[in-house]
């Protein structure tokens, strides 16, 4: 223990970067856990505060009270239910409310007031339950149709004031009112924008008629539990309504946000795991070099009686101290990171209060365990190597003993693993089913990655020589010295390059997959989409009838095609019934707007009265052919017997698996007030009027900012931007692993400079200038970085190309290698190498020549 403590503090500077790597990785894990726990706490408090003791909802409402429906109107119940609820035993108060999230709110300039961070826009009636969590800070609550109250956060964000006019756009139409009051949240607002109308106006604006409510908020009398109150209310009003306690409502709301938070949480933890993996190589290199530098010391310890186990444990105790030190700092840094993420979310419109900061006891425990266990495991190999140092090594300046047999075994194992990985990737690329191929791909990635890591030293001997011939030889003797330094210890070079390889392999893989998806989608659009313009909401809102009318009134358009999705139960000719299956209803012009391939019949015939189309796989599975009858029971409508007039190809990307009918057929069996709104709308310009029609259509949609008008070029760019934003986010998370890899290069060079102190002194003594010395170290760093980049980019492109073969089974058939990105990353790696060498090269240049020669 004394020896370990002495060595640890004697070499604390040399271990600093390893500690930073542990700190960063632990901080990312703890920051993720604190951040997601804080979000859960925030939502828990919000849902608990806003839920009444018992809530009665209309039939069709979700458990969380979400009001989005296919026809754009919230599910409602008659106002008489409120009176029935009041009769139930144990009811103190019962109040009917109406609200909807299927709305858009705009200011006087028609700019959207909806949250930019993805939070909901809620318009509802001002009621007693909301008065518990919202405080009117200025003005008054709405009293008539000309007034509206807005939440404080929305007022501050959009610089609104009392008397400003806003418009509420719903499926019913647009209602305008002036701001009469401002209400502030008494609990943390996680990003919603809320607008309050008086009850009558809310009913007319959101539902289209009075005398109905979406919810009844019920308060329990003293001594009555929520569970008992729920039972009493349900008995009084009978079936047909959804009755929930406050806890059930809060749990349902929490479940809605839990899915998003879990995806974010586990994605971030996954990237933290990658950083830990990269950090392992840094720690292995650090302890390997420290052991090599202390060979004489270890040999002397063995000579005076230390056993192999004691030497081994001495190194592991140093690793334990490093892990504890880095992990403790990492836990603290993780809390700071969580606060930073909260501030970032605030700038995106999702407000999280630091007063809700949640640090569960498990968070620091997990951080400490991960940091310590990873560090000790990474140090085990160098510790084991230290234990093999013989006492006779004290009599010479030899490094840790080289094990030629171990090197041969490593080369053989690496070759086998790499070959296995390549074989698995080949199986994935040639698979007939995506599910089966995905399993092969996953195993192939793991085996090929491990194989490259194991075989790294062997590859270093080959790749570094090639890179040296191409990059370093032009620098003359200095370049050759840098090349030889990189080749001096292939195991060390391989481990340092492998750390960078992992991050860049993932970058290259994702770049290939993303680029191929964009290229495939673009190719599919060019082949199949015949429409000039596509109008849709980017946040999933349905297209209102008023917006559709504005499009149809636009001059310069040859036709406008509506596109709806309805739900129905199918009874096929083989007697099977398929529940809640989608059916696509469109105008007949959709047959030309989307050039869908058919294997039997003509798609245009599917838009005839009482006709439909099915796709090829569905037809084969249920014995359907042209002329077959399918019983279709529409949701909220009647049952129809439709004749199959066309069978479409299943080998498509756009609208894959769709079954088409005409809107006229849908309207025949579904009442007008139950008809689903359009998912999106297509429009074609008259010949030669594309530019004018484009401008006119954008002008017509000015009053409806929730919808975006795109031509085909815009649509392709939007898809490319979406993929680009996703990749940029992933690259940002991968940056942690790359930063740790850079620290590994810096540490390797810094320790290498210490290791070669006497050699550097001798080179300086025979005439090597400081400038030449610094250049030599920078060139060594560059070639190590390029070695890691070359392996990583090659491996990643192989993974990406294999993944594209699987995507081809889903219709994305174009393989596109983003060479500009690949080349930029490769060149960027050279600059990473230069940057990593700045400090080690500077320190080497400052060495005193005589002291360096005399050093032990």
From TrEMBL:
Membrane topology, as annotated: Multi-pass membrane protein
Source species, domain of life: Bacteria
Entry keywords, A to Z: Cell membrane, Membrane, Transmembrane, Transmembrane helix
Gene Ontology cellular component annotations, sorted alphabetically: plasma membrane
GO molecular function: transmembrane transporter activity
Subcellular location: Cell membrane
Region (Disordered): 57-76
The ABC3 transporter permease C-terminal domain, residue ranges: 271-391, 733-848
Transmembrane parts of this sequence: 266-292, 315-339, 359-381, 411-429, 441-472, 493-513, 729-754, 781-801, 821-842
Domain MacB-like periplasmic core, chain residue ranges per copy: 16-234, 496-694
PANTHER family: ABC TRANSPORTER PERMEASE YTRF (PTHR30572:SF4), MEMBRANE COMPONENT OF TRANSPORTER-RELATED (PTHR30572)
Family designation: Belongs to the ABC-4 integral membrane protein family.
Name of the protein in question: ABC transporter integral membrane protein
Protein species of origin: Streptomyces sviceus (strain ATCC 29083 / DSM 924 / JCM 4929 / NBRC 13980 / NCIMB 11184 / NRRL 5439 / UC 5370)
């Amino acid at each position: 223990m004394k020896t370990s403590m002495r060595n640890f503090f004697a070499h604390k500077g040399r271990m600093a970067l390893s500690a930073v790597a542990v700190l960063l990785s632990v901080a990312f894990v703890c920051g993720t856990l604190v951040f997601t726990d804080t979000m859960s706490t925030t939502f828990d408090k919000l849902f608990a505060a806003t839920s009444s003791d018992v809530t009665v909802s209309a039939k069709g409402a979700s458990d969380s009270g979400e009001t989005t429906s296919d026809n754009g109107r919230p599910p409602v119940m008659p106002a008489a239910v409120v009176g029935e609820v009041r009769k139930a035993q144990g009811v103190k108060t019962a109040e009917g409310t109406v609200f909807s999230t299927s709305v858009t709110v705009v200011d006087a300039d028609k700019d959207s007031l909806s949250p930019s961070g993805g939070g909901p826009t809620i318009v509802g009636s001002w009621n007693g339950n909301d008065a518990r969590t919202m405080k009117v800070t200025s003005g008054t609550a709405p009293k008539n149709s000309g007034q509206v109250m807005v939440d404080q956060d929305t007022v501050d964000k959009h610089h609104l004031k009392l008397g400003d006019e806003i418009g509420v756009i719903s499926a019913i139409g647009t209602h305008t009112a002036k701001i009469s009051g401002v209400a502030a949240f008494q609990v943390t607002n996680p990003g919603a924008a809320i607008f309050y109308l008086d009850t009558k106006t809310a009913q007319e604006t959101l539902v289209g008629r009075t005398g109905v409510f979406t919810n009844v908020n019920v308060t329990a009398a003293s001594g009555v539990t929520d569970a008992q109150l729920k039972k009493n209310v349900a008995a009084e009003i009978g079936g047909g309504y959804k009755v929930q306690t406050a806890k059930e409502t809060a749990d349902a709301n929490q479940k809605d946000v839990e899915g998003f938070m879990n995806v974010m949480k586990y994605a971030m933890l996954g990237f933290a795991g990658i950083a830990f993996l990269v950090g392992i190589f840094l720690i292995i290199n650090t302890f390997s070099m420290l052991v090599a530098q202390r060979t004489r010391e270890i040999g002397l310890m063995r000579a005076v009686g230390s056993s192999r186990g004691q030497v081994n444990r001495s190194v592991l105790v140093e690793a334990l101290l490093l892990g504890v030190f880095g992990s403790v700092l990492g836990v603290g840094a993780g809390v700071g990171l969580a606060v930073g993420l909260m501030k970032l979310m605030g700038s995106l419109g999702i407000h999280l209060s630091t007063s809700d900061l949640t640090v569960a006891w498990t968070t620091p425990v997990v951080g400490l365990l991960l940091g310590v266990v990873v560090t000790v495991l990474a140090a085990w190999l160098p510790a084991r190597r230290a234990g093999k140092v013989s006492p006779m090594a004290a009599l010479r300046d030899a490094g840790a003993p080289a094990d030629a047999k171990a090197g041969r075994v490593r080369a053989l194992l690496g070759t086998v693993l790499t070959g296995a990985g390549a074989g698995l990737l080949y199986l994935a690329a040639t698979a007939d089913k995506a599910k089966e191929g995905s399993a092969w791909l996953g195993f192939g990635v793991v085996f090929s990655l491990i194989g490259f890591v194991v075989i790294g030293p062997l590859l270093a001997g080959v790749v570094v020589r090639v890179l040296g011939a191409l990059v370093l030889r032009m620098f003359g003797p200095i370049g050759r010295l840098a090349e030889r330094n990189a080749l001096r210890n292939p195991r060390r070079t391989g481990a340092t390059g492998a750390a960078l390889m992992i991050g860049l392999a993932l970058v290259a893989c994702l770049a290939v997959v993303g680029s191929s998806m964009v290229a495939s989608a673009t190719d599919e659009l060019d082949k199949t989409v015949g429409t000039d313009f596509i109008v849709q909401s980017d946040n999933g809102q349905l297209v209102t009838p008023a917006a559709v009318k504005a499009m149809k009134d636009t001059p310069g358009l040859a036709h406008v095609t509506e596109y709806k999705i309805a739900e129905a139960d199918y009874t096929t000719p083989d007697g099977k019934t398929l529940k809640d299956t989608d059916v696509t209803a469109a105008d007949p012009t959709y047959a030309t707007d989307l050039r869908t391939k058919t294997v039997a019949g003509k798609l245009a015939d599917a838009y005839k009265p009482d006709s439909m189309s099915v796709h090829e796989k569905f037809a084969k599975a249920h014995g359907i052919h042209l002329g077959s009858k399918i019983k279709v029971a529409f949701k909220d409508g009647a049952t129809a017997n439709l004749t199959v007039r066309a069978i479409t190809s299943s080998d498509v990307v756009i609208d894959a698996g769709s079954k088409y009918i005409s809107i006229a057929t849908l309207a025949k069996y579904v009442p007008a007030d139950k008809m689903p709104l359009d998912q999106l709308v297509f429009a074609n310009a008259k010949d030669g009027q594309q530019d004018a029609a484009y401008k006119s259509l954008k002008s017509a949609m000015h009053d409806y900012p929730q919808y975006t008008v795109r031509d085909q070029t815009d649509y392709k760019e939007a898809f490319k931007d979406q993929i680009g934003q996703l990749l940029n986010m992933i690259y940002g998370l991968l940056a942690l692993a790359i930063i740790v890899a850079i620290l590994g290069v810096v540490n390797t060079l810094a320790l290498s400079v210490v290791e070669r102190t006497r050699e550097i002194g001798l080179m300086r003594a025979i005439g090597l200038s400081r400038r030449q010395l610094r250049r030599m170290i920078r060139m060594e760093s560059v070639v190590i970085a390029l070695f890691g980049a070359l392996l990583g980019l090659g491996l990643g492109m192989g993974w990406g190309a294999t993944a594209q073969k699987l995507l081809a089974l889903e219709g994305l058939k174009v393989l596109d290698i983003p060479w500009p990105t690949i080349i930029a990353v490769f060149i960027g790696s050279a600059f990473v190498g230069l940057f990593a060498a700045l400090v080690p090269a500077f320190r080497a240049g400052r060495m005193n020549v005589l002291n360096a020669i005399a050093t032990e």
